[in-house]
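User: What would this chain look like folded?
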Amino acid sequence: MNLPLDIPALLKAATDIDEARNTPLAVSVYIDETAPGDVVGHVRSAFASAGAKTRGTIGYLDDNLLAEPYGADDMAVIVAGDSPRIGEQAAHIRGAGIPVMGHLGLTPQSIHKYGTYAVRAKEQAEADKLVRDAHLLEEAGCFGLVLEKIPAVLGTRVSQELEIPTIGIGAGGGTDGQVLVIHDMLGINNEFSPRFLRRYADLYTQMMTGVSRYVEDVKSGDFPSEQEQY
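Assistant: Here's the prediction, encoded as structure tokens.
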């Protein structure tokens, strides 16, 4: 997978599942050293269903991260948070030849630090710091920046000040692009309803209906039928 992504080509390829699963892809996930221990387990589970040619590497952010270049692998790393080292981490990864995308505002992986999923940077001091961090990540070589759950006026301000594109999730309409988590957007998860979310389907109801019908058919002996056996 080449970066930056060719979105039309990606969507076309995605219609062929076999082709997509056989596309060589190298992915590296670097976890903040303060993250709960079960995070690694969740990440490994995610890679378990990946294509046969997918190579996943999991590590922790520390001072020795990516001391050597990674060759010709195409990958990108997202650095999230507002710690004083965030710019150094981004620059270090970028220096190894790996594209880096920044992530500011509400960073769910830092929920233990914030203690809440509330909107970030509503106060002027935090808003000014977010703007400084955004410039810091741009200067460190990030190719883009995700802005999550911040006031719309701040999302617009950051987008106008930066040269790199911004992608918003709950950051207003002034960002360069938008993103939603597909499970939320398609209604697979019906318990999560933040203000910024617009659902485009109700797959939860359809899935529950389908599973219930399947269970009923198995219990009644209707499934499998003669036509569904070898």
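The CA atoms of residues 113 and 189 lie 25 Å apart. If you want, I can go into more detail on any region.
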